[in-house]
Amino acid sequence: MAVEPLARDEIEERLEQLPRWSFADDQLSRTYVFDGHPQAAGLVAEVARIQDELGHHSDLTLGYNKVTVTVNTHSVGGKVTELDFGLARRIEAAAPGHGARES
Length: 103
Fold this sequence. Notes:
The chain is an alpha+beta fold. 38% of the residues lie in helices and 19% in strands. The protein has three helices and four strands. Strand 3 and strand 4 (66-71) form a beta hairpin. Helix 2 runs antiparallel to helix 3 (82-94). The radius of gyration is 13 Å and the shape is globular.
C-alpha cells in the first residue's frame, strides 16, 4: 500500500490524540523537557532505536534538557502521512520512561 499525504482535517483529527504535538510548515513537532541532559540524551537514543525499527526517521534536536522532534515523510514531498503519526505515537509512549515532564 502506497503512503499518501494526509489532508489538513485528517491531520487535525489525529492531533487530538497527541495534544502536545503541533502541525506547521508540513511537519509534526513536539518538544520534550527533562530534568537534565542525561535524560534528554536517553530519549534521543530510544527514538533512534524506534526509528530504525520503523524505517522512518525524524529530525531530532538535543539541547541541555530538551529534545525537539520534527517529522514528515520525505518520499511524498515532505508532507505528513500516517507514518509520521505512527512514529509520533511511539515516541510519545517512550518519553515518560526517560523522565519527560509535561511541557
